[in-house]
Write a structure and sequence with these properties.
By secondary structure, the chain is of the alpha/beta class. It is built from eight helices and six strands, in the order βαβαβαβαααβαβα. Strand 3, helix 3 and strand 4 form a beta-alpha-beta unit.
């Protein structure tokens, strides 16, 4: 039997029927999303950071595990997703699946921070390096443009937050356009996105920036 990434979360009891699930990026850890979760919890929401083996499985397998978790949650009627980088793609893959959990849990909104929605060209640039393929694993290939282009667009309200300097070179001149050091601003954008926010910050800390947190607060419905 397959061991699911979120096995320990299956018995969790959440304090509210609506929850925020936070997904970290490639080769990161759930602790990188703690500040964002704390911000939401301090506003009175119920936010939970998930940990998953981002470098050991493919994008589809990550979504399989998240789907398994949602199919076994009790007392939760709606969910919002906040994904940093790869985490946003995991949420998008999950949202493309219309059966199962979506019959009992409403997907309310999606928030993506530095997510390469059109693929990350930098992954193409360094994919030939053995160190990158060893460290990044299957998901390191899944963020390449030719892998991401067929991923369905989200069917729920979507906030995209990108990092950049508002210049032609961004934080990494090698990318040839505004970027957060890893993902270009253009690579984050999706046709039909609800709201877009550019924040002056690098890729690895975009989720912690005060402007990112304010954008999240402004986007989500207030507690009633």
């Amino acid at each position: 039997e397959k061991l699911h990434s979120f096995k320990k979360e299956l018995g969790l009891k959440f304090t509210q029927p609506h929850i925020f699930l936070l997904l970290h990026g490639l080769a990161r850890h759930k602790k990188t999303m703690v500040k964002t979760a704390r911000f939401l919890n301090n506003l009175g929401h119920c936010a939970y950071c998930l940990n998953y083996p981002s470098t050991l499985q493919s994008l589809n397998h990550h979504a399989d595990d998240l789907e398994h978790l949602l199919n076994h949650l009790d007392g939760v009627t709606s969910v919002s997703f906040i994904g940093h980088s790869l985490g946003g793609l995991v949420a998008r893959e999950l949202l493309s699946r219309k059966d199962g959990w979506r019959q009992k849990i409403k997907a309310r909104e999606l928030i993506m921070l530095g997510t390469p929605n059109n693929g990350a060209r930098i992954a193409d640039m360094i994919t030939g390096l053995k160190l990158y393929t060893t460290i990044a694993g299957p998901s390191g290939q899944d963020v390449r443009p030719f892998r991401v282009r067929d991923l369905p667009k989200p069917d729920i309200p979507t906030l995209i937050i990108a990092g950049g300097r508002g210049t032609k070179t961004g934080f990494n001149p090698l990318l040839g356009e505004d970027n957060d050091g890893i993902v270009t601003v253009a690579e984050t954008k999706l046709e039909g996105m609800t709201t877009f926010k550019l924040v002056p910050v690098i890729h690895t800390t975009i989720m912690d920036h005060p402007e990112s947190l304010q954008a999240i607060k402004d986007f989500i419905p207030p507690l009633t």
